[in-house]
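queue> holo job accepted (nicotinamide-adenine-dinucleotide)
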Amino acid sequence: MKVLVTGHDGYIGSLLTRILADDGHEVVGLDTFYFEGCTLGRHKDDSAYIRKDLRDVTPLDLAGFDAVCHLAALSNDPLGDLRPELTYDINHTGSLCLARLAKDVGVTRFVFSSSCSLYGSNDSGHPLTEQARFCPLTPYAESKVELEHDLAAMADDRFSPTYMRNCTAYGVSPKLRGDIVLNNLTAWAFTTGKVKILSDGTPWRPLVHVEDICRAFLAVLNAPRETVHNEAFNIGRDDENYQVRDLAEIVERIVPNCEIEYAGDGSPDPRSYRVDFGKLTRTFPDLELRWTAEKGAHELYEAYRTNGLTREQLEGDPYIRLNRLKRLIREERLDESLRWKPVGVPAALVPVGSMAELIATVGE
Ligand SMILES: NC(=O)c1ccc[n+]([C@@H]2O[C@H](COP(=O)([O-])OP(=O)(O)OC[C@H]3O[C@@H](n4cnc5c(N)ncnc54)[C@H](O)[C@@H]3O)[C@@H](O)[C@H]2O)c1
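queue> job finished
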């Protein structure tokens, strides 16, 4: 299949392109490169790509693809809180336009990287299946609900969307993120000797390794269309539902000379949910999700040790998505809509009417 992976320069996308290509797919990335150079260690990426904001995609960019794996997004709650309208603009409106254009030019599969965070504070005591009611608590989670809803309305015999409801990822990828729970706890433990918990440790969080998410994407792409047409799948393993304090204990066991510290105000985090992954297992009996949080914490610890991760790096901007975007805005490299500003053209020399056009072309 010829597959376009949006967000291919991100945490999940940078691994997904590799895994799809290794399976024989022809893969092209598309990304605006907010996190260019934010790697842990060296990373060489040979994949073909389009450097573009997804909000500026044209039919020509999409023609000829069999499938789109749509990952590009403002990818967490803190980014959604920065300026909520930007999360809606990129994650919902822009993504919907992309899907419509894709359908118009004949792309038949659209695999959307959704999130279990749309279940919100749904801790009913039972793990939640795909039928559970949505309870999104943040603009980020709402944007996922809205896009799933609108994609479902587009599903027909020409266009098959699939909703990958990933739970919180962990593990090493070429574009590591330090702002997701296990990566973060392990990084704090390694750089400061403290496993820092900001809630009271009781919230439930299902976790899944980044590589296992990519394997699930591959399984969906390779499945017959009728198996995945307009279907949602919770992506993870039943035995990987943890309370945050369980994760802290795992990290405490693995990283030498560290201890747990409750650093927040001790109030419970309202985002808490346990998830049932039975549908994924039943639909893809051959799909092997290989990782556990324990194995992942070992992997992360080794990666941090090998690359000499420092506290300054951890608290800075290479691995914390919000910090990176704030810096790009502060340095006036991104404009207020999170599009790149033209490089090397003093604002005073740009005729007012041509500003938008100039940003769209030079800024990419
Ligand atoms: N990592 C997780 O724990 C997790 C869990 C559930 C769902 N997801 C979803 O999976 C997807 C990928 O997550 P990730 O962790 O790799 O995030 P990431 O932030 O590492 O990567 C997102 C990528 O999208 C790109 N991007 C953002 N806005 C764009 C735009 N307007 N145009 C073009 N490119 C743009 C960024 O430059 C970045 O490379 C996201 O949709 C996220 O919501 C992630």
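queue> Residues 7, 9-13, 31-35, 53-55, 71-75, 90, 113, 115, 166, 168-169, 175, 177, 180, 321 surround nicotinamide-adenine-dinucleotide (CB under 6 Å).
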